[in-house]
């Protein structure tokens, strides 16, 4: 499978307002709804730290917003769509806004479908197998994307700190220059609260390989984030929620996908290994470290 390197400059993360004027929205409309309009329509903005997205059906616009939403997610969507078009299906992003309260508003295309989580129990074996095959092809395509050969690192795509939720309670760290540096840091997090004199050589560190590849990683690939058609034959319409995505060691996607579902879940037991390369050795270390860190 042919690899590709994305060299186009990313949209500027420092901008408080960004319109993607070449997107389909601006072929029909002149202006995105304002943050004030979004706030006025939100039912839970004052009661939830993660408000539900607001939908403007007549504009084909869904607005994901809140204090924890990041411009990096909009950059992720923009880059994946730019690099792969429909080979890796994601919502088209139309722009973003950052208001005075530092809420980020991401404006994107509405995907009309159901989550795979919602439909899973009603699907027959043939539809499940078909969706698994589609997901396998999507993930193979996504992993074709390579970093600039002169700028290898592990971090978010805008060269900032990692956005994975397992690190949410950890101090933000600059991008890592290579896999070894990331693995050393990750393996050391459970001991980071100990005085240096009490830290020990971790016997599980050897389970994390330092000689793999750095790959663009979704980081939250569970069925709630896979939108599929509600009619047979089932089709994957989009992979959504790219807020945790970034450049990670090649084992990270598998570990995070297992981490997002129950041990005895059919999805985990029978299907994940069919669309991602199994990395059980790495997962053994991953689950130990995340549990010791208190990540949930």
Automatic annotation (TrEMBL):
* A matching Pfam family: APH
Superkingdom assignment: Eukaryota
Q: Which InterPro entries match?
A: AGP_Transferase (IPR051678), Aminoglycoside_PTrfase (IPR002575), Kinase-like_dom_sf (IPR011009)
Q: Where is the Aminoglycoside phosphotransferase domain?
A: 82-275
SUPFAM superfamilies referenced in this protein's UniProt entry, alphabetically: Protein kinase-like (PK-like)
This chain's protein is named Phosphotransferase enzyme family protein
Species name for this entry?
A: Talaromyces proteolyticus
Q: What is the lineage of its organism?
A: Eukaryota, Fungi, Dikarya, Ascomycota, Pezizomycotina
